[in-house]
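We read letters as residues; the fold follows as tokens. Both lines appear below.
***
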Amino acid sequence: MKNLLLYIALCLVSIAGINAQTGNPGIDQAIAQGKFTLAQQLIREGIASGNLSPQTAWEWQLQSDILDRTRLDFNRDEAYMRRTLGKYYAVETQNFASLLHKWEKSGVLENRLIDGEKRYFRNAVWNLFRIDQEARARKEAVDGKAADKLGEYLSGYLPIAYKYIAGGDRPIAQPRQMRLRYTLTVEANAVPAGEMLRAWLPYPRSGHNRQAAVQLLGASAAHYVVAPPAYPHSTIYMEKPAEKIRSRVSNTR
């Protein structure tokens, strides 16, 4: 068994919105209308034309990647909503249909149109019970009241966070420094002995509002390559020859 370890110190990551507009009316309109496939086709054609600056091409590719990520996150359909909520509501009634429409319109049941289909956020049902008081009361009536540790934490933290950022231009409330241990493990003898085991591992990007002062404290590999800031994907590359072993974990620091 082989481990590649990273020790990374970085500031607290906060949620920050990414501007979803490309500056191209056709692409922006397609995204606004939920026509993801069309938007990505236009993005590919625009990049392939060679008429974009490197920065614009990078931003357009990023937007295409965001659309891919959105597809993955909004992967539930109405049938799933009805199956999951069927434990708490009579989903075949007109009353439920009205309730569903109400939740969707208010935004408490996260959904969006993607290529002509209404898709729901993967955790939309459980977020509904967290956001909507009536839905939460219904769930508690069926399941009983459970301890909500996250809710308890947020109820204390959010007022403090709001106090720090209200009326100012600070993007992060109460910045914190964090130290992470990052481990990649490969099963013993999964790679034939002598072959090079190569790994490109995600690496936190510094220089924007969400996180800064990223510092690599150490790695198990003597030689590694961190992608330059200009690269679209921030990674660290390491390699190590595979060895035939029985059962061993080797960590260096």
User: Anything to note?
Assistant: Residues 93 and 99 are 10 Å apart (CA to CA). The helical segments are 25-32, 36-48, 54-73, 78-85, 94-106, 124-131, 133-143, 149-165. The longest strand covers residues 2-11.
